[in-house]
Design brief:
Layout: E1 3-7, E2 18-26, E3 29-32, H1 37-42, H2 47-53, E4 63-67, E5 76-84, H3 94-107, E6 113-117, H4 123-136, E7 168-172, H5 179-203, H6 211-225, E8 228-232, H7 234-240, H8 243-249, E9 257-263, E10 271-282, H9 302-317, E11 322-332, E12 344-346, E13 352-354, H10 362-374, E14 380-385, H11 389-395, E15 400-404, H12 407-420, E16 424-426, E17 444-445, H13 453-462, E18 470-475, E19 481-482, E20 493-494, H14 499-510
Parallel strand pairs: 1-7, 2-5, 2-6, 6-7, 10-11, 10-14, 13-17, 14-18, 15-16
Antiparallel strand pairs: 2-3, 4-5, 8-9, 9-11, 12-13, 15-18, 19-20
Helix pairs in contact: 3-4, 4-5, 5-9, 6-9, 8-10, 9-14, 12-14
Length: 515
Protein backbone atom coordinates (compact mmCIF):
# COMPACT_ATOMS: atom_id res chain seq x y z
CA UNK A 1 0.00 0.00 0.00
CA UNK A 2 1.13 3.59 -0.64
CA UNK A 3 3.40 4.88 2.15
CA UNK A 4 2.23 8.07 3.87
CA UNK A 5 4.23 10.81 5.54
CA UNK A 6 3.36 14.16 7.08
CA UNK A 7 5.70 16.92 5.94
CA UNK A 8 6.39 20.52 6.80
CA UNK A 9 8.64 20.91 3.75
CA UNK A 10 8.00 23.67 1.23
CA UNK A 11 6.75 22.49 -2.16
CA UNK A 12 9.55 24.04 -4.28
CA UNK A 13 12.39 22.21 -2.54
CA UNK A 14 10.77 18.82 -2.12
CA UNK A 15 12.13 15.99 -4.26
CA UNK A 16 9.14 14.23 -5.77
CA UNK A 17 7.71 13.17 -9.10
CA UNK A 18 4.79 15.58 -8.78
CA UNK A 19 3.19 18.25 -6.60
CA UNK A 20 -0.58 17.89 -6.22
CA UNK A 21 -2.63 21.01 -5.65
CA UNK A 22 -6.34 21.68 -5.31
CA UNK A 23 -8.40 23.83 -7.65
CA UNK A 24 -11.88 25.05 -6.82
CA UNK A 25 -14.67 25.97 -9.21
CA UNK A 26 -15.39 29.64 -8.61
CA UNK A 27 -17.99 31.96 -10.06
CA UNK A 28 -15.40 33.60 -12.31
CA UNK A 29 -13.36 30.53 -13.16
CA UNK A 30 -10.98 28.21 -11.35
CA UNK A 31 -9.26 29.35 -8.17
CA UNK A 32 -6.23 27.88 -6.43
CA UNK A 33 -7.15 26.24 -3.12
CA UNK A 34 -5.32 26.82 0.17
CA UNK A 35 -2.18 24.77 0.58
CA UNK A 36 -0.83 25.68 -2.85
CA UNK A 37 0.27 29.25 -2.09
CA UNK A 38 3.96 28.52 -2.75
CA UNK A 39 3.14 26.91 -6.08
CA UNK A 40 0.92 29.80 -7.14
CA UNK A 41 3.62 32.29 -6.13
CA UNK A 42 6.12 30.51 -8.37
CA UNK A 43 3.72 31.14 -11.27
CA UNK A 44 3.67 34.82 -10.28
CA UNK A 45 0.14 34.43 -8.98
CA UNK A 46 -1.17 33.46 -12.40
CA UNK A 47 -1.66 29.72 -11.86
CA UNK A 48 -5.47 29.95 -11.94
CA UNK A 49 -5.31 31.70 -15.31
CA UNK A 50 -2.87 29.15 -16.69
CA UNK A 51 -5.16 26.33 -15.61
CA UNK A 52 -8.18 28.00 -17.16
CA UNK A 53 -6.27 28.36 -20.42
CA UNK A 54 -5.57 24.63 -20.30
CA UNK A 55 -9.30 23.97 -19.94
CA UNK A 56 -9.44 23.33 -16.22
CA UNK A 57 -12.55 24.51 -14.38
CA UNK A 58 -12.06 23.10 -10.88
CA UNK A 59 -14.87 20.61 -11.33
CA UNK A 60 -14.81 17.67 -8.93
CA UNK A 61 -12.39 14.93 -9.99
CA UNK A 62 -10.90 16.91 -12.89
CA UNK A 63 -7.14 16.31 -13.23
CA UNK A 64 -4.82 18.68 -15.12
CA UNK A 65 -1.06 18.19 -15.43
CA UNK A 66 1.37 20.98 -16.27
CA UNK A 67 5.15 21.53 -16.07
CA UNK A 68 6.36 22.73 -12.69
CA UNK A 69 7.79 26.24 -12.55
CA UNK A 70 11.53 26.91 -12.64
CA UNK A 71 13.31 26.13 -9.41
CA UNK A 72 11.04 23.27 -8.38
CA UNK A 73 12.65 19.89 -7.80
CA UNK A 74 9.44 18.14 -8.85
CA UNK A 75 8.94 18.22 -12.63
CA UNK A 76 5.14 18.21 -12.71
CA UNK A 77 2.25 19.98 -11.00
CA UNK A 78 -1.00 18.03 -10.85
CA UNK A 79 -4.08 20.20 -10.32
CA UNK A 80 -7.12 18.29 -9.11
CA UNK A 81 -10.65 19.68 -8.97
CA UNK A 82 -12.34 20.12 -5.60
CA UNK A 83 -15.70 21.22 -6.92
CA UNK A 84 -17.54 24.37 -5.88
CA UNK A 85 -15.56 26.91 -3.91
CA UNK A 86 -16.86 27.01 -0.30
CA UNK A 87 -18.77 30.18 0.50
CA UNK A 88 -17.47 30.33 4.07
CA UNK A 89 -15.69 28.35 6.76
CA UNK A 90 -15.17 25.53 7.68
CA UNK A 91 -13.78 25.25 4.17
CA UNK A 92 -13.87 22.32 1.79
CA UNK A 93 -16.15 19.39 2.43
CA UNK A 94 -14.34 16.29 3.71
CA UNK A 95 -15.66 14.11 0.90
CA UNK A 96 -14.49 16.65 -1.72
CA UNK A 97 -10.95 16.42 -0.31
CA UNK A 98 -11.12 12.63 -0.13
CA UNK A 99 -12.28 12.29 -3.73
CA UNK A 100 -9.75 14.80 -5.04
CA UNK A 101 -6.88 13.01 -3.31
CA UNK A 102 -8.09 9.71 -4.72
CA UNK A 103 -8.37 11.00 -8.27
CA UNK A 104 -4.86 12.45 -8.08
CA UNK A 105 -3.37 9.28 -6.61
CA UNK A 106 -4.90 7.18 -9.39
CA UNK A 107 -3.57 9.59 -12.03
CA UNK A 108 -0.07 9.23 -10.56
CA UNK A 109 0.23 5.47 -11.07
CA UNK A 110 3.89 4.68 -11.76
CA UNK A 111 5.22 7.58 -9.67
CA UNK A 112 7.55 6.88 -6.77
CA UNK A 113 6.62 9.93 -4.72
CA UNK A 114 4.10 12.74 -4.84
CA UNK A 115 3.62 15.71 -2.54
CA UNK A 116 0.00 16.62 -1.80
CA UNK A 117 -0.42 20.35 -1.17
CA UNK A 118 -4.17 20.19 -0.52
CA UNK A 119 -6.05 22.19 2.13
CA UNK A 120 -5.14 20.80 5.58
CA UNK A 121 -6.76 23.19 8.01
CA UNK A 122 -6.89 20.61 10.79
CA UNK A 123 -5.99 17.03 11.66
CA UNK A 124 -9.28 15.67 10.30
CA UNK A 125 -8.39 17.06 6.86
CA UNK A 126 -5.10 15.15 6.93
CA UNK A 127 -7.07 12.01 7.72
CA UNK A 128 -9.49 12.32 4.81
CA UNK A 129 -6.74 13.23 2.34
CA UNK A 130 -4.70 10.24 3.51
CA UNK A 131 -7.73 7.99 3.14
CA UNK A 132 -8.41 9.32 -0.35
CA UNK A 133 -4.82 8.72 -1.43
CA UNK A 134 -4.74 5.15 -0.13
CA UNK A 135 -8.12 4.22 -1.61
CA UNK A 136 -7.50 6.00 -4.90
CA UNK A 137 -4.13 4.31 -5.46
CA UNK A 138 -5.71 0.84 -5.21
CA UNK A 139 -5.60 -1.50 -8.16
CA UNK A 140 -6.26 -5.24 -8.50
CA UNK A 141 -4.19 -6.98 -11.16
CA UNK A 142 -3.19 -10.20 -9.41
CA UNK A 143 -4.32 -12.26 -12.40
CA UNK A 144 -2.77 -10.18 -15.21
CA UNK A 145 0.42 -11.26 -16.91
CA UNK A 146 0.85 -7.67 -18.09
CA UNK A 147 1.28 -6.65 -14.46
CA UNK A 148 4.50 -8.61 -14.22
CA UNK A 149 7.72 -6.67 -14.69
CA UNK A 150 10.21 -9.31 -15.68
CA UNK A 151 9.57 -11.36 -12.55
CA UNK A 152 6.73 -13.15 -10.84
CA UNK A 153 4.65 -10.51 -9.08
CA UNK A 154 1.39 -12.46 -9.05
CA UNK A 155 -0.64 -11.53 -6.01
CA UNK A 156 0.73 -7.99 -5.81
CA UNK A 157 -1.31 -4.93 -6.69
CA UNK A 158 0.00 -3.14 -9.76
CA UNK A 159 -1.40 -1.34 -12.72
CA UNK A 160 -2.33 -3.51 -15.68
CA UNK A 161 -0.40 -1.15 -17.95
CA UNK A 162 2.80 -2.06 -16.08
CA UNK A 163 2.66 0.97 -13.77
CA UNK A 164 2.67 0.24 -10.07
CA UNK A 165 0.46 2.29 -7.75
CA UNK A 166 1.87 5.52 -6.33
CA UNK A 167 4.60 4.38 -3.90
CA UNK A 168 4.74 7.29 -1.46
CA UNK A 169 2.65 10.34 -0.66
CA UNK A 170 3.84 13.27 1.45
CA UNK A 171 1.06 15.42 2.91
CA UNK A 172 2.38 18.98 2.90
CA UNK A 173 1.11 21.20 5.67
CA UNK A 174 0.81 18.19 7.93
CA UNK A 175 2.32 18.31 11.39
CA UNK A 176 4.42 15.19 11.94
CA UNK A 177 4.90 15.88 15.67
CA UNK A 178 1.27 16.74 16.34
CA UNK A 179 -0.51 13.81 18.04
CA UNK A 180 -3.86 14.61 16.43
CA UNK A 181 -2.39 14.70 12.91
CA UNK A 182 -0.47 11.46 13.47
CA UNK A 183 -3.54 9.73 14.88
CA UNK A 184 -5.71 10.85 11.95
CA UNK A 185 -3.26 9.46 9.40
CA UNK A 186 -2.75 6.22 11.33
CA UNK A 187 -6.52 5.71 11.51
CA UNK A 188 -6.83 6.38 7.78
CA UNK A 189 -4.10 3.84 7.04
CA UNK A 190 -5.73 1.10 9.15
CA UNK A 191 -9.21 1.62 7.72
CA UNK A 192 -8.00 1.98 4.12
CA UNK A 193 -5.82 -1.12 4.29
CA UNK A 194 -8.71 -3.24 5.56
CA UNK A 195 -11.14 -1.69 3.07
CA UNK A 196 -8.69 -2.55 0.28
CA UNK A 197 -8.51 -6.09 1.65
CA UNK A 198 -12.30 -6.25 1.28
CA UNK A 199 -11.96 -5.01 -2.30
CA UNK A 200 -9.41 -7.76 -2.99
CA UNK A 201 -11.83 -10.39 -1.73
CA UNK A 202 -14.70 -9.06 -3.84
CA UNK A 203 -12.48 -8.96 -6.93
CA UNK A 204 -11.06 -12.46 -6.46
CA UNK A 205 -12.60 -14.95 -8.95
CA UNK A 206 -15.00 -17.47 -7.38
CA UNK A 207 -12.89 -20.42 -8.50
CA UNK A 208 -10.26 -19.16 -6.04
CA UNK A 209 -12.60 -17.85 -3.33
CA UNK A 210 -15.13 -20.42 -2.21
CA UNK A 211 -16.54 -20.49 1.35
CA UNK A 212 -13.65 -22.60 2.68
CA UNK A 213 -11.04 -20.27 1.14
CA UNK A 214 -12.81 -17.16 2.51
CA UNK A 215 -12.88 -18.75 5.97
CA UNK A 216 -9.14 -19.43 5.73
CA UNK A 217 -8.45 -15.76 4.92
CA UNK A 218 -10.49 -14.75 7.96
CA UNK A 219 -8.63 -17.21 10.18
CA UNK A 220 -5.24 -15.90 9.08
CA UNK A 221 -6.22 -12.27 9.70
CA UNK A 222 -7.74 -13.13 13.06
CA UNK A 223 -4.51 -14.78 14.18
CA UNK A 224 -2.49 -11.77 13.04
CA UNK A 225 -4.62 -9.24 14.93
CA UNK A 226 -5.55 -11.12 18.07
CA UNK A 227 -9.16 -11.78 17.11
CA UNK A 228 -10.90 -14.93 18.28
CA UNK A 229 -12.27 -16.97 15.38
CA UNK A 230 -14.65 -19.91 15.11
CA UNK A 231 -15.50 -21.66 11.84
CA UNK A 232 -18.53 -23.92 11.55
CA UNK A 233 -18.11 -26.38 8.68
CA UNK A 234 -20.86 -28.51 7.14
CA UNK A 235 -20.89 -31.08 9.94
CA UNK A 236 -21.13 -28.38 12.59
CA UNK A 237 -23.86 -26.58 10.65
CA UNK A 238 -25.88 -29.78 10.38
CA UNK A 239 -25.43 -30.50 14.08
CA UNK A 240 -26.47 -26.93 14.94
CA UNK A 241 -29.51 -26.91 12.68
CA UNK A 242 -28.49 -24.06 10.40
CA UNK A 243 -31.05 -24.91 7.72
CA UNK A 244 -30.82 -21.63 5.84
CA UNK A 245 -27.07 -21.71 5.21
CA UNK A 246 -27.13 -25.44 4.46
CA UNK A 247 -30.10 -25.06 2.10
CA UNK A 248 -28.38 -22.41 0.03
CA UNK A 249 -25.09 -24.31 -0.12
CA UNK A 250 -26.68 -27.69 -0.86
CA UNK A 251 -26.18 -27.51 -4.63
CA UNK A 252 -22.48 -26.69 -4.56
CA UNK A 253 -19.43 -28.95 -4.41
CA UNK A 254 -17.94 -26.31 -2.09
CA UNK A 255 -19.56 -26.63 1.31
CA UNK A 256 -20.89 -23.62 3.27
CA UNK A 257 -19.30 -22.08 6.36
CA UNK A 258 -20.34 -19.79 9.18
CA UNK A 259 -17.43 -17.77 10.50
CA UNK A 260 -17.55 -15.93 13.82
CA UNK A 261 -14.92 -13.25 14.48
CA UNK A 262 -14.81 -11.81 18.00
CA UNK A 263 -12.85 -8.69 18.93
CA UNK A 264 -13.07 -7.80 22.60
CA UNK A 265 -11.82 -4.82 24.58
CA UNK A 266 -11.26 -4.92 28.33
CA UNK A 267 -12.65 -1.38 28.49
CA UNK A 268 -15.79 -2.05 26.46
CA UNK A 269 -19.18 -1.07 27.83
CA UNK A 270 -21.17 -1.93 24.69
CA UNK A 271 -21.24 -4.76 22.19
CA UNK A 272 -22.03 -4.79 18.48
CA UNK A 273 -22.71 -7.63 16.08
CA UNK A 274 -22.07 -7.22 12.35
CA UNK A 275 -23.55 -9.87 10.05
CA UNK A 276 -22.47 -10.24 6.42
CA UNK A 277 -23.96 -12.06 3.45
CA UNK A 278 -21.18 -14.12 1.87
CA UNK A 279 -22.43 -15.82 -1.28
CA UNK A 280 -19.07 -16.43 -2.96
CA UNK A 281 -20.87 -17.03 -6.25
CA UNK A 282 -24.56 -16.68 -6.96
CA UNK A 283 -25.86 -18.50 -10.02
CA UNK A 284 -29.40 -18.16 -8.70
CA UNK A 285 -29.54 -21.90 -8.00
CA UNK A 286 -32.43 -23.77 -9.61
CA UNK A 287 -34.04 -20.34 -10.21
CA UNK A 288 -31.10 -19.72 -12.54
CA UNK A 289 -30.10 -16.19 -13.41
CA UNK A 290 -30.24 -15.40 -17.14
CA UNK A 291 -27.17 -14.49 -19.17
CA UNK A 292 -26.19 -10.92 -18.50
CA UNK A 293 -27.07 -11.15 -14.82
CA UNK A 294 -24.50 -13.61 -13.50
CA UNK A 295 -21.14 -12.39 -14.80
CA UNK A 296 -20.41 -10.21 -11.76
CA UNK A 297 -21.93 -12.48 -9.14
CA UNK A 298 -18.55 -13.07 -7.51
CA UNK A 299 -19.41 -9.81 -5.72
CA UNK A 300 -22.32 -11.37 -3.82
CA UNK A 301 -20.06 -11.83 -0.81
CA UNK A 302 -19.34 -8.10 -0.50
CA UNK A 303 -21.37 -7.83 2.70
CA UNK A 304 -19.28 -10.51 4.41
CA UNK A 305 -16.09 -8.85 3.11
CA UNK A 306 -17.20 -5.53 4.62
CA UNK A 307 -18.00 -7.11 7.98
CA UNK A 308 -14.68 -8.97 8.01
CA UNK A 309 -12.73 -5.79 7.20
CA UNK A 310 -14.62 -3.73 9.79
CA UNK A 311 -13.92 -6.18 12.62
CA UNK A 312 -10.21 -6.28 11.77
CA UNK A 313 -10.12 -2.47 11.54
CA UNK A 314 -11.79 -2.18 14.95
CA UNK A 315 -9.12 -4.48 16.40
CA UNK A 316 -6.28 -2.53 14.77
CA UNK A 317 -7.69 0.74 16.10
CA UNK A 318 -8.13 -0.74 19.58
CA UNK A 319 -11.69 0.55 19.86
CA UNK A 320 -13.25 0.27 23.32
CA UNK A 321 -16.25 -1.73 22.16
CA UNK A 322 -16.78 -5.46 21.66
CA UNK A 323 -17.40 -6.27 18.00
CA UNK A 324 -18.45 -9.67 16.68
CA UNK A 325 -18.57 -10.39 12.98
CA UNK A 326 -20.66 -13.20 11.49
CA UNK A 327 -19.79 -14.26 7.93
CA UNK A 328 -22.53 -16.43 6.38
CA UNK A 329 -20.66 -18.12 3.51
CA UNK A 330 -22.13 -20.33 0.80
CA UNK A 331 -22.07 -20.85 -2.95
CA UNK A 332 -25.49 -20.89 -4.63
CA UNK A 333 -25.37 -23.44 -7.46
CA UNK A 334 -27.86 -25.66 -9.35
CA UNK A 335 -27.39 -29.41 -9.16
CA UNK A 336 -29.23 -32.60 -8.28
CA UNK A 337 -28.70 -31.84 -4.59
CA UNK A 338 -29.74 -28.17 -4.77
CA UNK A 339 -32.70 -26.73 -2.89
CA UNK A 340 -35.76 -26.54 -5.16
CA UNK A 341 -38.50 -23.92 -5.37
CA UNK A 342 -41.22 -25.32 -3.11
CA UNK A 343 -38.83 -26.87 -0.59
CA UNK A 344 -39.24 -25.96 3.07
CA UNK A 345 -36.18 -25.24 5.22
CA UNK A 346 -36.09 -25.33 9.00
CA UNK A 347 -33.95 -22.41 10.08
CA UNK A 348 -31.57 -22.13 13.04
CA UNK A 349 -34.29 -20.19 14.89
CA UNK A 350 -36.71 -23.11 14.47
CA UNK A 351 -38.95 -21.24 12.02
CA UNK A 352 -39.73 -22.86 8.70
CA UNK A 353 -39.32 -21.07 5.38
CA UNK A 354 -40.94 -22.05 2.09
CA UNK A 355 -38.43 -21.34 -0.67
CA UNK A 356 -40.34 -19.89 -3.61
CA UNK A 357 -37.26 -18.59 -5.40
CA UNK A 358 -33.76 -19.99 -4.87
CA UNK A 359 -32.31 -16.72 -6.16
CA UNK A 360 -33.60 -15.03 -2.99
CA UNK A 361 -30.89 -16.90 -1.11
CA UNK A 362 -29.07 -14.11 0.69
CA UNK A 363 -31.89 -13.63 3.17
CA UNK A 364 -31.76 -17.34 4.01
CA UNK A 365 -28.10 -17.38 5.05
CA UNK A 366 -28.51 -14.04 6.84
CA UNK A 367 -31.51 -15.33 8.77
CA UNK A 368 -29.43 -18.06 10.39
CA UNK A 369 -26.55 -15.70 11.13
CA UNK A 370 -28.87 -13.03 12.55
CA UNK A 371 -30.44 -15.52 14.92
CA UNK A 372 -27.00 -16.78 15.97
CA UNK A 373 -25.86 -13.20 16.62
CA UNK A 374 -29.05 -12.52 18.58
CA UNK A 375 -28.29 -15.31 21.07
CA UNK A 376 -25.40 -13.25 22.44
CA UNK A 377 -27.68 -10.29 23.20
CA UNK A 378 -25.55 -7.51 21.66
CA UNK A 379 -26.60 -3.89 22.10
CA UNK A 380 -27.16 -3.66 18.34
CA UNK A 381 -26.91 -5.77 15.19
CA UNK A 382 -26.15 -4.46 11.70
CA UNK A 383 -26.32 -6.77 8.71
CA UNK A 384 -24.75 -5.92 5.36
CA UNK A 385 -25.74 -7.55 2.09
CA UNK A 386 -25.88 -7.22 -1.67
CA UNK A 387 -29.46 -8.30 -1.24
CA UNK A 388 -31.88 -7.01 -3.87
CA UNK A 389 -31.99 -5.62 -7.37
CA UNK A 390 -35.03 -3.69 -6.16
CA UNK A 391 -32.80 -1.50 -4.00
CA UNK A 392 -30.66 -0.71 -7.04
CA UNK A 393 -33.78 0.32 -8.95
CA UNK A 394 -34.80 2.55 -6.06
CA UNK A 395 -31.48 4.21 -5.21
CA UNK A 396 -29.16 3.65 -8.16
CA UNK A 397 -25.62 2.32 -8.25
CA UNK A 398 -23.93 4.61 -5.71
CA UNK A 399 -26.33 4.73 -2.76
CA UNK A 400 -27.30 1.96 -0.38
CA UNK A 401 -30.49 1.59 1.61
CA UNK A 402 -30.82 1.47 5.40
CA UNK A 403 -33.73 -0.25 7.12
CA UNK A 404 -34.13 -0.77 10.87
CA UNK A 405 -36.50 -1.74 13.64
CA UNK A 406 -35.70 1.53 15.43
CA UNK A 407 -36.01 4.89 13.69
CA UNK A 408 -33.43 6.61 15.90
CA UNK A 409 -30.87 3.90 15.22
CA UNK A 410 -31.57 4.05 11.49
CA UNK A 411 -30.92 7.80 11.59
CA UNK A 412 -27.70 7.30 13.56
CA UNK A 413 -26.39 4.74 11.07
CA UNK A 414 -27.34 7.04 8.22
CA UNK A 415 -25.42 9.92 9.80
CA UNK A 416 -22.40 7.65 10.32
CA UNK A 417 -22.54 6.64 6.65
CA UNK A 418 -22.73 10.20 5.38
CA UNK A 419 -19.96 11.30 7.75
CA UNK A 420 -17.79 8.49 6.40
CA UNK A 421 -18.36 9.47 2.77
CA UNK A 422 -20.67 6.56 1.94
CA UNK A 423 -23.93 7.72 0.30
CA UNK A 424 -26.91 6.00 1.94
CA UNK A 425 -30.62 6.59 2.35
CA UNK A 426 -33.10 5.57 5.08
CA UNK A 427 -35.85 3.26 3.87
CA UNK A 428 -39.10 2.16 5.58
CA UNK A 429 -40.37 -1.27 6.58
CA UNK A 430 -44.09 -1.00 5.70
CA UNK A 431 -46.07 -3.47 7.78
CA UNK A 432 -48.61 -4.15 5.02
CA UNK A 433 -45.90 -5.84 2.92
CA UNK A 434 -45.40 -8.57 5.53
CA UNK A 435 -48.64 -10.36 4.57
CA UNK A 436 -47.28 -11.08 1.11
CA UNK A 437 -44.81 -13.55 2.66
CA UNK A 438 -47.51 -15.65 4.32
CA UNK A 439 -47.16 -19.30 3.32
CA UNK A 440 -49.84 -22.04 3.44
CA UNK A 441 -47.07 -24.57 4.10
CA UNK A 442 -44.46 -22.90 6.32
CA UNK A 443 -44.14 -20.11 8.87
CA UNK A 444 -43.01 -17.69 6.15
CA UNK A 445 -42.02 -17.66 2.48
CA UNK A 446 -38.77 -16.20 1.21
CA UNK A 447 -40.64 -14.06 -1.35
CA UNK A 448 -43.45 -11.55 -1.13
CA UNK A 449 -44.85 -8.75 -3.26
CA UNK A 450 -42.72 -7.82 -6.26
CA UNK A 451 -43.15 -4.09 -5.80
CA UNK A 452 -41.01 -2.89 -2.94
CA UNK A 453 -38.88 -6.03 -3.07
CA UNK A 454 -36.02 -4.46 -1.14
CA UNK A 455 -38.38 -3.58 1.71
CA UNK A 456 -39.90 -7.07 1.64
CA UNK A 457 -36.41 -8.54 2.09
CA UNK A 458 -35.86 -6.26 5.08
CA UNK A 459 -39.13 -7.41 6.64
CA UNK A 460 -38.09 -11.04 6.15
CA UNK A 461 -34.78 -10.45 7.96
CA UNK A 462 -36.52 -8.69 10.83
CA UNK A 463 -38.29 -11.98 11.60
CA UNK A 464 -34.94 -13.46 12.65
CA UNK A 465 -33.71 -10.70 14.95
CA UNK A 466 -33.99 -11.50 18.64
CA UNK A 467 -36.71 -9.73 20.61
CA UNK A 468 -35.65 -6.40 22.07
CA UNK A 469 -32.45 -6.12 20.04
CA UNK A 470 -31.83 -2.98 18.01
CA UNK A 471 -31.12 -3.88 14.39
CA UNK A 472 -30.31 -2.24 11.06
CA UNK A 473 -30.05 -3.72 7.58
CA UNK A 474 -27.79 -2.24 4.89
CA UNK A 475 -28.68 -3.29 1.33
CA UNK A 476 -25.49 -2.45 -0.58
CA UNK A 477 -26.49 -4.10 -3.87
CA UNK A 478 -25.92 -0.89 -5.84
CA UNK A 479 -22.57 0.49 -4.71
CA UNK A 480 -20.77 -2.75 -3.72
CA UNK A 481 -19.44 -3.37 -7.23
CA UNK A 482 -18.66 -0.60 -9.69
CA UNK A 483 -19.25 -1.80 -13.24
CA UNK A 484 -18.47 1.63 -14.71
CA UNK A 485 -15.26 3.60 -14.83
CA UNK A 486 -13.34 4.68 -11.73
CA UNK A 487 -14.22 7.99 -10.07
CA UNK A 488 -12.74 9.83 -7.13
CA UNK A 489 -11.19 7.18 -4.91
CA UNK A 490 -13.59 4.48 -6.16
CA UNK A 491 -12.09 1.89 -8.55
CA UNK A 492 -13.78 -0.27 -11.10
CA UNK A 493 -14.87 -3.54 -9.47
CA UNK A 494 -15.14 -4.11 -5.73
CA UNK A 495 -15.55 -0.89 -3.77
CA UNK A 496 -15.46 -1.91 -0.10
CA UNK A 497 -18.79 -0.21 0.55
CA UNK A 498 -20.02 -0.21 4.17
CA UNK A 499 -16.61 -0.81 5.78
CA UNK A 500 -16.24 2.83 6.79
CA UNK A 501 -19.84 3.05 8.01
CA UNK A 502 -19.39 0.03 10.27
CA UNK A 503 -16.09 1.33 11.64
CA UNK A 504 -17.65 4.71 12.34
CA UNK A 505 -20.61 3.11 14.12
CA UNK A 506 -18.14 1.17 16.25
CA UNK A 507 -16.19 4.34 17.06
CA UNK A 508 -19.32 6.24 18.04
CA UNK A 509 -20.51 3.33 20.17
CA UNK A 510 -17.14 3.14 21.91
CA UNK A 511 -17.31 6.86 22.63
CA UNK A 512 -20.80 6.52 24.10
CA UNK A 513 -22.28 8.69 21.36
CA UNK A 514 -24.49 6.00 19.83
CA UNK A 515 -26.82 3.58 21.51
Amino acid sequence: MTALTLSTAAAPGLRADAIVIGVAKGADGPSVAPGAEAVDKAYDGRLAGVLETLGASGAEGEVTKLPAPAGFKAPVVVAVGLGAEPEKDPGFDAEALRRAAGAAARALAGAKKAAFALPLAEAADAGVVAEGVLLGAYSFDAYKESAKDGKDTKGARSKGNGKAPLAEAALLGGKPRDKAFKAAVERAAAVAEELNRARDLVNTPPNDLNPEAFAAVAQAAAKEHGIKVQVLDEKALVKGGYGGILGVGAGSASGPRLVKLSYTSSKAKKSLAFVGKGITYDSGGISLKPAGHNETMKCDMAGAAAVFAAVVAAARLGLEVNVTGWLALAENMPSGSATRPGDVLRMYSGKTVEVLNTDAEGRLVLADALWAASQEKPDAIIDVATLTGAMMLALGSRTYGIMANDDAFRSAVHEAAEESGEPAWPMPLPEHLRKGMDSPTADIANMGERMGGGLVAGLFLREFVGEGITWAHLDIAGPAFNEGGPFGYTPKGGTGTAVRTLVRVAELTAAGELG
